[in-house]
Amino acid sequence: MQEAFIKLEQGRKTVMQYEAEFTALAKYAHLIPTAEEKCYRFLEGLNRELKHPLVPLRIQEFSKLKWARLIEIDLTASVSRYEVGSIYDVSMSRDEPSRER
């Protein structure tokens, strides 16, 4: 269990899935003596696009790491808007012949 905990990274998991696995493994690993170290270890396992905005906040309470989930939601929404916008832009920029008679 300790090795699984040490190597744990978010990878393709959602933040909620990663947090659930992290919490479950942390109970058995007994490697995190303080709340600060728990936050640090959680942040280290997050994907880069989620970790970078959180590091400057110096979060020391695990409950405040909910910000990772909010960032994930925002990034997902941004990607969705971008994809929809790209499809819209492409369809509007086609050179279609006029159908006027």
Automatic annotation (TrEMBL):
Domain of life of the native organism:
Eukaryota
Q: Which organism is it from?
A: Dendrobium catenatum
User: Domain Retrotransposon gag, which positions?
Assistant: 1-48
Q: Could you tell me which InterPro entries the record lists for this protein?
A: Retrotrans_gag_dom (IPR005162)
Pfam families linked: Retrotrans_gag
UniProt-recorded name of the protein: Retrotransposon gag domain-containing protein
